[in-house]
Design goal:
CATH architecture of the largest domain: 2-Layer Sandwich
CATH topology of the largest domain: Heat Shock Protein 90
Mean pLDDT: 89
Radius of gyration: 52 Å
Distance between the termini: 152 Å
CATH superfamily of the largest domain: Histidine kinase-like ATPase, C-terminal domain
Helix content: 40-55%
CATH class of the largest domain: Alpha Beta
Bound molecules: adenosine-5'-diphosphate
Shape: rod-shaped
């Protein structure tokens, strides 16, 4: 820069001052951080030109620096915002994770509580409970099951179910492993109930004699089959009581039989040989009927206890079922007439022959036909038919009688059970007829069922197999 010289004229000084004056706003704005003003241009070059150019360059450098700085600032701000977002997202994730962990902990706590409750429940039930996995390995056992099997944890847990216990059917025949209740319930995906008081199943542990039981096996079905739960009820006491009761009935029936026969003979002898007043005849007649009823009752009771003991012999011959049915129908024709009920026997077109026990089938026919006549009012009809339907032999007994109320139907084969609507029509009924008929049908390998509508009538069906095997037995039924 050229400095003012001593030879400068006052005019020069004035020009220089004016020129410097023109730069004042630039400095004034720069003082408050505003570098946007430019140095005003000069047409002529003088001693301030170099200074003015330098100043302009400086201004531009500063502006550029400011622009860069601002850009950097902006990037920084953006980064800060981005960082804040990331941090917020991270916090959210952490918060979520915290919540998830809390929820998981809650679920775990609940599961533990439920497990505890289940354990208490499983322990508190009187029945034995054994759970097996899909490989039939024992995974859980309650105290009642340990007691039934007379075993401890180390004898059972982790072992195959067939190593732990043998299952026997009601004839004490050992059930093979592939037919174990839990094996079958897993395979069939359904609950199986086996054994009851009348025909118990047996469990034999490694260390003890067979225990009579009733068993339920339920498959565990969540997400495919995962095993099964076996519930075991020890029915030794009930079986023992039932046996005592049966023995008592057998003895009492035997004891009653002889005096009843004597009473019957005496009443028959007196009726034939003595001249009696009308009153005397009536009393003797009543005595005779009562002795017949009592004899029939003792016979029924004896039959029931023999069937329950499972000692009844089955003799197999060729049986013409059509003939058997029509013969029995004839036998009851006078009773039907007395009741004013039409009794008809629908004869099959060709003989219906099977290999079975004729005497036992007769007991079934007797029960069904007598019931049909007993529970049909005067003017009604009772029919019986035997037919071969495809490969099945079916005896059908149907009537237009009082019928069995819907709500009573599931009890009808239960021992001593009588539907309330039946009682007035057969006061001396015992509720043992159908029970006996069902037991005999089972013994003959058949099926017995019915359809009925109250007030309209009933239809009983007996399906018998073509051929059965004779069965050894020490007892025969009384007819
Ligand atoms: P009981 O006839 O001696 O009462 P059963 O065991 O033979 O005993 O029959 C049981 C019950 O079944 C009867 O009491 C009656 O309620 C009902 N029942 C059986 N057969 C018939 C039928 N044909 N019509 C209506 N009810 C019947």
């Amino acid at each position: 820069m050229r400095m003012p010289q001593a030879n400068h004229t006052p005019k020069d000084v004035e020009r220089i001052v004016k020129r410097l004056e023109s730069l004042r706003p630039i400095f004034a704005r720069a003082a408050i951080g505003d570098y946007s003003a430019d140095v005003p241009p000069y047409e002529t070059e003088d001693e301030l030109t170099e200074f003015a150019v330098g100043l302009q360059i400086m201004l531009e450098v500063i502006r550029e620096k400011i622009a860069k700085h601002e850009e950097l600032q902006k990037t920084l701000e953006e980064k800060i915002v981005e960082y804040a977002d990331t941090q917020r997202a991270l916090l959210n994730v952490m918060e979520d994770e915290k919540q998830t962990r809390a929820q998981l902990e809650l679920v775990r706590q609940r599961e533990a509580e439920e497990k505890k409750k289940l354990e208490i429940l499983v322990e508190s039930v009187g029945e034995g409970i054994i759970a097996v996995d899909e490989k039939l390995q024992v995974v859980m056992v309650n105290s009642a099951a340990y007691a039934i099997l007379k075993a401890t944890e180390k004898d059972i847990i982790g072992k195959q179910i067939c190593e732990v216990m043998q299952v026997m059917d009601s004839d004490k025949k050992v059930i093979p492993e592939n037919e174990y209740p839990c094996t079958l319930s897993i395979q069939l995906k359904k609950r199986l109930v086996l054994g009851n008081l009348e025909s118990p199943y047996y469990l034999k542990s490694l260390y003890h004699d067979p225990v009579p039981v009733s068993l339920t096996s339920t498959p565990l079905l969540s997400n495919g089959t995962r095993g099964a739960v076996i519930v075991i009820r020890d029915i030794s006491e009930e079986v023992a009581h039932s046996r005592t009761r049966s023995e008592f009935i057998t003895v009492a029936s035997h004891q009653l039989k002889s005096p009843m026969t004597i009473i019957r003979w005496i009443s028959e002898w007196l009726t034939e040989n003595e001249t009696l007043s009308e009153e005397g005849k009536k009393l003797l007649n009543d005595l005779h009927s009562a002795s017949l009823r009592l004899t029939s009752l003792t016979d029924t009771l004896l039959n029931v206890s023999r069937l329950e003991e499972g000692m009844v012999r089955v003799d197999v011959t060729s049986v013409d079922v059509g003939k058997l049915v029509s013969e029995y129908c004839n036998l009851l024709s006078s009773y039907a007439k007395e009741k004013e009920v039409t009794l008809q026997c629908v004869s099959p077109s060709t003989p219906v022959k099977i290999k079975s026990d004729a005497a036992l089938i007769t007991v079934i026919v007797q029960v069904l036909l007598t019931n049909a006549l007993d529970y049909t009012l005067a003017g009604g009809t009772v029919s019986i038919a035997a037919a071969r339907d495809e490969s099945r032999t079916v005896i059908k007994v149907w009537d237009s009688g009082i019928g069995i109320p819907q709500q009573e139907q599931h009890h009808i084969f239960t021992k001593f059970y009588r539907a309330p609507n039946a009682v007035p029509y057969k006061v001396e009924g015992t509720g043992l007829g159908l029970y006996t008929a069902k037991k005999i049908t089972d013994l003959l390998g058949g099926k017995l069922w019915f359809e009925s509508q109250e007030g309209k009538g009933s239809m009983f069906f007996v399906e018998l197999p073509e051929k059965i095997k004779a069965r050894e037995g020490t007892k025969q039924l009384v007819f």
